[in-house]
Amino acid sequence: MPNVREAGRPARRCATLVAALLLALVPFGAGAPGTAAARAAPAADAAWTASAVPAPTGALPVGVRTAHLRDTSRRDPWNPDRYRELALSLWYPALPSRAPRASYVTARESALILRFHRVEGVPADLLARFRVHARTAPPPLPAPARGLPLVLLSPGFALPRSSLTGLAEELASRGYAVAAVDHAYEAPAISHPDGRVTGCLACRRHPEGARVAATRAADLRFVRERLLRSPGAVGLPRLDPSRVAVVGHSMGGAAAFEALRTDAGFAAAANLDGTVHTGGRSPVDRPFLLLGAGEHGRPGADPTWQRAWRDLSGPRRWLSVRGAGHLSFTDYARLLERTGTAGEEVTLGAADAGRVTRELVVAFLDERLRRYGPRLDTAARQDPEVVTHGR
Question: What class, spelled out in words, does domain 5-390 have in CATH?
Answer without folding.
Answer: alpha beta
